[in-house]
Amino acid sequence: MKLRGALSSIQGRFESAQREAFDDGWTREDEPAALLATTVTEERARSILSCNDSPDVPFEQSINPYRGCEHGCAYCLAGDTKILMADGTLRLLENVREGDLVYGTQRKGWYRRYARSRVLAHWSVIKPAYRVTLEDGTTLVTGPDHRFLTERGWKFVVNSRPAIGQDRAHLTPNNKLMGTGAFAGAVPRNGNFQLGYLSGMIRGDALLRSYHYERVGRSSGEQHRFRLALCDHEALQRAETYLRDWQIATRRFVFQEAAAGRGAMQAIRTSARVDLENIRELIGWPRTPSREWAAGFLAGIFDAEGSCSGGVLRISNTDPEIIAWIGRCLRALEFRYVIENTKRDRPKPVDVVRVIGGLREHLRFFHTVDPAITRKRDISGQAVKSDARLGIVSVEPLGKSMRLYDISTETEDFIANGVVSHNCYARPSHAYLELSPGLDFETRLFAKTNAAELLKEALSKPGYAAKPIAFGTNTDCYQPAERRYRVMRGVLELLAACEHPLSIVTKSALVERDLDLLAPMARKGLAKVFVSINTLDRTLARRLEPRAASPQRRLDTLRALGRAGVPCGVMVAPVIPALTDKSIEEVLEAAAAAGATAAGYILMRLPHEVKPLFKEWLAAHYPQRADHVMSVVRQLRGGRENDPNFGTRMTGTGTFAELIRGRFDLACRRFGLNEERRGEAPLDCTLFRPPQRGGQMGLF
Fold first, then answer.
1. Strand order in the sheet with 469-471
2. Cα–Cα distance, 644 to 607 (Å, whole number)
3. DSSP string across 5-58
4. What average pLDDT does the segment 275-292 reach?
5. Starting at the edge strand that comes first in sequence, how are the strands of the sheet with 90-92 ordered?
6. Which of 117, 248, 443, 598 is 20 to 30 A from residue 498's alpha carbon, by CA?
7. DSSP letters of 458-513?
8. Measured between alpha carbons, how far is 656 from 633 in angstroms, rounded to an integer?
9. Left (φ > 0), alpha (ψ -120 to 50) or beta: where does 40 sit?
10. Would you call 363 helix, strand, or coil by DSSP?
């Protein structure tokens, strides 16, 4: 048994279930693993099937029954693509960063609706570029594997995909993309814009008044007051800055203290006569307003008197002159609007100017005039539907490779140049849960106990098309906790009953438990298993993967799979330069002797938090070799310590990468690996039978 301080796992007197003995190949003479208490939390997942768009891996969907791993192993668009941020502003894709908030979409009821989404990762890649042109003139420069939301669902840019070898839904001139429509450019915020903004803001929400009255003992009874009090600091800051630019100094003060449910209201003021005279001159109506003044006025009056909620953008005021100027400025910027008269029985009736045209025009208003208050730009909850002209005109290759960018978000999509774009994984994933990708990843696991239930629901959907499901793509599906929770077992039982194809990558001998399911599936061409082995050195393996099965035990697992008739292979992963790469040939030879017929390898990757963890591990176990290892890593990654780019992130670049690739290919030929794979039939998807919902029997 694996050692964590105690020498055995005896049965507890109060345990209701009999503890199962399990041999993972380690003996008491081996170096014991550190004492680490593992906790497993039962998690009711919301979904179970994950989709993959990466051209680096040969599967389209996968399942991860567990979050975390107790083994202890230490699509893309041009950079100038505009992304809709969660505050309603725009930012170039190349400048978006992890942690930023953007808009994505979520399905609620019949519609997808816009929702705020956090950016989880950001990367770039050099790959062949395509130009997608839309009816409204929008162009999107993108990679061939990117996906966009159309009126008929998600579709790739082009059909070709050698890694999969089968047709896929792709963009054609018959498709229309979904989204907000093209983003508008902002009017320059020059001096005229500033004057317009101050006019709209001060006329809409400020106190600007002079008083005259007799005061005893004073020669002058004149009083001058300018005050602007706002709850939103962005608008107050902008007005204060613009006034300062025009040589008018104001003082900041607390107008209203914070109370339950709201913060303190800040204000600016001045009582100097010359300042008030200058302010009145600044906000005067121009004879011929420029485009910039009109945009500034609309931004100011919207910050002061406007709102956007429930899909309605409106600006209200009681002054007919201000209402007339709002209409004049909207016409100058080619916005359509209506004026609604309300509360006519009041001494000062309220008129409402409403911008029409839906979300597309509301966003054009925000991006053109650029109001300061971000909370008023919130479009969360609005449905993804628009009359924008987003039909596909053409999809054409640019005939060159370009650096393209992509992000991963919580909603798995984002809004790029006005259309909904899909984004394209095991330690960094724990950081999303606010847990450490270090020890927490190894000791705080989450078992998706409703995995089989969710999978049954997914497979039962009328439009589901069977494609091989990959297991072990993020974390090992055969965690030690699987012996108790049997999440993987339940999923396998469902897939076997439905005759659904699957593939497994694992470093655990526990896969032998499920040979009664895998062997019959394999005979029908429905299953294959890869066992991960990167070294036969027991000492090195114990340090690299302290709670995984020993290398010899994994070879025994290959033999058991082969005897049962399950197609099996070895995954030499990860290959660590100057540490485990020397073992490539001996691992392949031993695996072939044990019955493996196929082989693959993955070069060590150091994304996100894995990089400092690996450096810490190197310093603790191989301090004299650490600098050399990292030097070779940088040679393999183009001078960096990690390369996130598709096409090279799994195999590396440069002389050392070519050497590893050549050694691997030569060894495979020598030991007869991958020979059968050249003529091997893919996993059979034609036998799939959807499960019956609710246990109801079929009619025939």
1. 50-51, 61-63, 469-471, 502-506, 527-532, 568-575, 598-603
2. 7
3. SSS--PPPTT-SSPPPP---S--TTSPPPP----EEEEE--S---EE---TTSS
4. 95
5. 90-92, 82-84, 413-416, 419-422, 147-150, 153-156
6. 598
7. HHHSTT----PEEESSSS-SS-TTHHHH-HHHHHHHHHHHHT--EEEEES-GGGGG
8. 9
9. beta
10. helix
Q: Pick the more confident residue, 654 or 620.
A: 654
Q: Which residues contact 379 (CB under 8 A, 6 or more apart)?
A: 88, 103, 114, 308, 359, 362, 363
- Predicted local confidence at residue 641, as pLDDT: 84
- Residue 462 amino acid letter: P
Report the C-alpha gap between 646 and 650 in whole angstroms.
Answer: 8
Tens digits of per-residue pLDDT, 469-490?
999 877 788 887 788 889 999 9
Single out the residue of 503, 573, 527, 605 nearest to residue 58, CA to CA: 503
Q: What single letter denotes the amino acid at residue 152?
A: R
Determine the straight-line distance between the first and last CA of the chain, rounded to whole angstroms: 50
For residues 200 and 294, give the distance between their C-alpha atoms in angstroms, rounded to a whole number: 10
Please report, as a single letter, which amino acid is at residue 5.
Answer: G
512: its two tokens? 């032998």
622 confidence band (pLDDT: 50, 70, 90) = confident
Distance (Å, whole) CA 638 – CA 693: 52
Can you state the angle between helices 291-305 and 233-245, rounded to 10 degrees?
A: 140
521-568 pLDDT, tens digit per residue, is 999 999 999 999 999 998 888 888 777 788 999 999 999 999 999 999
pLDDT in tens, 157-216: 987 544 333 456 789 998 999 999 999 989 999 999 999 999 999 999 999 998 876 666
As a whole number of angstroms, the distance between CA 603 and CA 530 comes to 17
**Average pLDDT, rounded, for the chain:** 83
- What is the H or E stretch that residue 127 is in? strand 111-134
- If you search the block for the tokens 């000791």, which residue do you land on? 443
Question: What pLDDT shows up at residue 318?
Answer: 92
Q: Residues of the chain with pLDDT > 70: what percent?
A: 81
Q: Which residues have a Cβ under 8 Å from the Cβ of 632 and sit 6 or more positions away?
A: 577, 578, 656
Residue 24 has pLDDT above 70, yes or no: no
Rg (CA), the chain: 32
Q: Say yes or no to pLDDT of 624 above 80.
A: yes
Strand-pair partners of 406: 123
Token pair listed for 31: 């170096």
Check pLDDT > 90 for residue 285: yes
Residue 415, H or E segment = strand 413-416
